[in-house]
Amino acid sequence: MLNYLETSRLNLCRPRLSEVPELFQFLGDQAAMRHTHCDANIRECRKRIAVHERRRRRDGFAPWTVRLKATGKIIGWGGLYDDPFDPGWGIELGYYFDPTSWGNGYATELCQAALDYSDRHVKAESVTAFAQPDNAASKALLIKHGFKHQRFVKDMNRNLYNRVRRVS
User: How many Cβ atoms are within 10 Å of 36's Cβ, its own excluded?
Assistant: First the structure.
């Protein structure tokens, strides 16, 4: 189980409950989370982080807190997970960022690090991801990382994508 990763500009760390107020600033922001789940309150956000951390101990992976290397500022949360709140989709890739950090390529760095971790350590045969049909940025990001569109999941109003493991 890896609790810490670095990219060229990011530190990906195991979340701490003390970080929940900072994470909730965007995970609880309706506009920022318009394409995905939005936490209704800080208690719900704390629960989500805690449940994923329990899964990290079981599965060996869960979303990381994303910090800028240069400043230490929290700008995101994401990575690999087997969703405990909506099970049955296998190992998923998810990424959630503070809107002030959008458009800087941070999601690309997070996704690459998470997929490398999946390929080398988790050895998942495939990773899934979801994107709403009107979320062009997520669709482009997923395709850039080798995901293929599988189908539209009507009851979720999301497109399902899949990426097969790359063996190096």
Answer: 16
The three state secondary structure string of 17-74 is: HHHHHHHHHHHCCCCCCCCCCCCCCHHHHHHHHHHHHHHHHHHCCCCEEEEECCCCCE
How many structural domains compose the chain?
1
CATH number for position 90: 3.40.630.30
The total number of residues shown for the chain amounts to 168
Q: Is the pTM of this model over 0.85?
A: yes
Give Cα 97 distance to the centre of its chain.
9
Q: Rounded to whole angstroms, what are the CA distances from 55 to 71, 87, 135, 159?
A: 29, 12, 28, 25
Which position has the token pair 């400043």? 71
- For residues 161 and 130, what is the distance between their CA atoms, to the nearest angstrom? 6
Give CA–CA dist 96/46, Å, rounded.
Answer: 15
Rounded average pLDDT per 10-residue block, the chain, 168 residues: 83 96 96 92 97 94 97 97 93 96 96 96 95 95 98 96 87
State how far the Cα of 78 lies from the Cα of 138, in Å rounded to an integer: 13
| Alpha-carbon gap, residue 52 to 153, rounded angstroms | 24
* Domain range enclosing 8: 4-164
